């Protein structure tokens, strides 16, 4: 099966041996995004609201580079450093999806996230 690598300078460069996204079999698999500024690589915000906004901007940039947008997202996974942030993250996340057609989602609390951020989100989208 062939696949193609998706990359954009409008989202943070990977901090390890992975790509921002991979397209294969009509699907786009977007790596987990954290609240990194794509220009200078610094963490944006100290609170979960600011970090979630940046995560969603980073995801949007990668999706755009793949030629899709939020309506094509079919699955997300939200990783939280503290499940007490669920409501705040959910309020911001909800701004990006129509409730009637929102993607499937999992949300888990984890012991630690890269660079000690508060939230990380990945997604899967359907290519046009």
TrEMBL record:
<dbReference type="Pfam" id="PF01042">
    <property type="entry name" value="Ribonuc_L-PSP"/>
</dbReference>
<keyword id="KW-0378">Hydrolase</keyword>
<dbReference type="GO" id="GO:0120241">
    <property type="term" value="F:2-iminobutanoate/2-iminopropanoate deaminase"/>
</dbReference>
<dbReference type="InterPro" id="IPR006175">
    <property type="entry name" value="YjgF/YER057c/UK114"/>
</dbReference>
<dbReference type="InterPro" id="IPR035959">
    <property type="entry name" value="RutC-like_sf"/>
</dbReference>
<protein>
    <submittedName>
        <fullName>2-iminobutanoate/2-iminopropanoate deaminase</fullName>
        <ecNumber>3.5.99.10</ecNumber>
    </submittedName>
</protein>
<dbReference type="InterPro" id="IPR019897">
    <property type="entry name" value="RidA_CS"/>
</dbReference>
<comment type="similarity">
    <text>Belongs to the RutC family.</text>
</comment>
<dbReference type="InterPro" id="IPR006056">
    <property type="entry name" value="RidA"/>
</dbReference>
<dbReference type="GO" id="GO:0005829">
    <property type="term" value="C:cytosol"/>
</dbReference>
């Amino acid at each position: 099966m062939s696949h193609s690598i998706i990359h954009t300078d409008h989202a943070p460069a990977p901090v390890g041996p992975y790509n921002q996204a991979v397209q294969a079999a009509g699907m786009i698999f977007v790596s987990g995004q954290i609240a990194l500024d794509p220009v200078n690589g610094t963490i944006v915000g100290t609170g979960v609201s600011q970090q979630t906004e940046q995560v969603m901007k980073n995801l949007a940039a990668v999706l755009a580079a793949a030629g899709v947008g939020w309506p094509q997202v079919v699955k997300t996974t939200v990783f939280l450093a503290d499940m007490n942030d669920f409501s705040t993250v959910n309020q911001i996340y909800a701004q990006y999806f129509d409730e009637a057609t929102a993607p499937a989602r999992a949300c888990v609390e984890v012991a630690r996230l890269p660079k000690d951020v508060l939230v990380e989100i990945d997604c899967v989208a359907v290519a046009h």
